[in-house]
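Two proteins were folded this term; both appear here.
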Amino acid sequence: MRFLRSKYLQQLLAGRGNGMVKIITGVRRCGKSFLLFDIFRSHLLSEGVSEDHIIALTLDQRDMKTLRNPDKLLGYIDSRLTADNRTHYIILDEIQMVEDFVEVLLTLMRKPNTEVYVSGSNSKFLSSDVVTEFRGRGDEIRVYPLSLSEYMEGTGLDYLTAAKYYFVYGGLPQVALMEDMQKKEDFLRTMTEVTYLRDVVDRNHLRNEEGMRELIRILASTVASSTNPTKIADTFKSVAKLRITETTVRQYIAYLQNAFLVEEALRYDIKGRRYIGAENKYYFVDPGIRNAVLNFRQIDDGHLMENIIYNELRMRGYLVDVGRVETWQIVNGKRVRKNLEVDFVVNRGSQRYYIQSAYEMPSSDKKAQEEHSLKLVDDSFRKIILVHEDILPRRDEKGIVTMGLKQFLTDVHAIEIA
């Protein structure tokens, strides 16, 4: 089985000639190295690029120890550059092993007829650290774990079978290739405990390791639910019996974001057209990692479906917020203001979509509930309800489209043509 990662290959190819260092980021084990050293390299060879014009180095290997010295690395690469006008492709993995690696990359970027591609481990090589250093001279390509479509393509499984595994074990390529369920669980537990959390604790020199562990458990338990640092700090006090300030909670969440483990969806006032400092939502970059944090308990299909939809939208290049729309209702004879939620306000360029995630809508009351907030949005952008059931798309008299999750996950243009 092989995962082609065609979308990311196209991004690598599209970046050629832009004069920037191509920085490949993403959570550990999502397939960054395979993308560069196998998929991208094979494509270059198929285009006719000669072997001697591809300089590919994995710098964490023992036989590369000498080249971790910045001057020796530059000297070695210089010795491989030939005096012709053909492009040399320099591919460096685990670049954080090299001292002063930002200076090294800037030096390589200025060499004529070169394209530079780098990736590294999250403990030191992070988007927030590295891309900022380049100040417009770095082109970040964010790699996610497998989408469900990629999972199906690589494993050959049908949608129902693939989705059954994907909701529980997620899309890390190595996990997808395992056939034994116990091995999947054991691997995810080990990666979560020994690699992901260890990276965050060590990199940020955290003294309160248990506090970080409890935080990630809280975020996993409340995935796709509105929360904020104040609420989380209160949960620490009441449930975990730990005293952690709001400021510390906010900082710990930032550490998890920098490690690409979770993403934050900000709350957006749709009518007021502004972000509001209220409760946001947090989503895990991979459902398998989220489930492993909770030892594969609390497999809530509704919340996991919302997490998977969020990830899919982000993989497709959309910016995603949580929408709020204000309305007034009569309660006990009094006019009361109420805030309703739109699960996703989705933007890319001039495109915008409002999306509700509804695992099931068995009754007319449930359907009315999901539609109500969308009907309160008085603009002309598409409004969509995604349901778990595999149905043909249907549009009501208000223009609201109800679509099955299968169509959304397997057709990248589904919401554009709905």
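Next, the second protein.
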Amino acid sequence: MVNRKNLAHTSSEPGKTRQINFYNIDNKFYFVDLPGYGFSKMSKEEQDKVGSFIEEYLFNRENISLIIFLIDIRHSPTNNDKLMYDYIIRSNKPFIMIANKVDKIPVTKIQDTMKTLQKEINPMMDIKTFPFSSEKKIYSKPVWNIINNFLEEEK
């Protein structure tokens, strides 16, 4: 999202992150990367532990300006995606959803896939959801407009 290769270490296996990572963006704000655990090989006990600390962070951290909920556009939301959505809703903090990896599906299917995804995870369709590709840098302008609006409000 920030056009910096190798800013975050990634693994070929999702769900390897076990801690919260803070990324200082031009001394203006932080992106905070919480662990994902939907596709990981964590035990149920580890998933519960990570889920608890994510929930604690979301509910108790007061200086969260905006939560960005990343979801893979290629798959139907998993139970863990729905659980994360529930954590975010219950946190009462502003958030948007980003359907990432749109470069992995045909352009002609993006809008229909976005609608289906939105209906599955947010049936009221009241949460802003944006397509995004960090790899091809497409659809980024609307997302950055929202982020910048929240940053301006915080000043």
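The chain is about 35% helix and 15% strand. The helical segments are 44-60, 79-91, 110-121, 140-154. These notes refer to the second protein only.
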